[in-house]
Amino acid sequence: MVQQTLEYLSQDQVDLVSQDVFYIKVPGFLSKDEVNSLLARSKQLLDQFDPENHPLTKFTTSDHDHVGDEYFLESGDKIRYFLEEDAVGSDGRLTRDKAKAVNKIGHGLHLLDPVFRKVTLENEKLKSVAKDLRFHHDPVALQSMVIFKQPEIGGAVPEHNDSTFLYTSPPTALGFWIPLERCTSSNGALSFLPGSHLTTPITKRFVRLTAGGTGFQSILTPASPKLDIQEVLEQPVSMEPDLSERNYTMEVCEPGESHCDLVLIHGSVLHKSERNTSSQTRYAYTFHMIDSSPYAKYDEKNWLQPTLSMPFPKVLDAPIKDTISATAS
Question: What pLDDT is stored for residue 3 in this prediction?
Fold first, then answer.
């Protein structure tokens, strides 16, 4: 591996990029004050939620009745609320207090909210991490959200990878996941399948269907997941969890008295989380980066689209010439 002058990450952390792991835990990334600000702002946004003027859009990661309405599709440059599946009764009304009914708030927090923008686009540590990783040439940020994982009804998220939902050619998605509260086995901590980015090619992508709404489109994969992939016709593709035995690793996170960790997730790494069966919430802030044109193509089929007035914002002041990611020649 080529040695480089690092700004924030350790060499051991950077080395994980080329090894068979590629989910990286970065201890102490945010200060306690920064975490408290994010938590306080998240709770303020929950307080501002008005169910009476909301389409009561539920969020689900299964194949059945996946979110595909305009409220969801036009959320990239807005701050919108998505509900837990069990939070809306058959009468169309909330079954619990609104603060305990919201699955997540997104997807333009990093653009529109000053508190979230500060830790995302105005964070020099984050820029240093992006430069140290050399995973992208010229990254842009997108799909920011607070995920609440509500007590007792916080739904399980089945095995998936992020490049399925934020597809580029070649694949360049990278997830940034910041736990704002304790994440344990009982309240839905993340689990990862180490090395799966090297063994599990991207076989489907989440797209806007020509007939309206959203769905999964099969893609033809070559022998190596590092090569580009050719798209095929739209057809039903299962998003149900793979029940085969896999050696997942659970990443328990517990924000300390003075800091909070960051977890970096390669877009092809398989990960999941279980249902929150506890009485505790599991707040987490997450967003993603992809490489921008001409280094990668993010096309109009993707469910999340930039707008003329609010394109995906660039993270760095200048592109990185040499990278070690899938986009490198």
Answer: 63
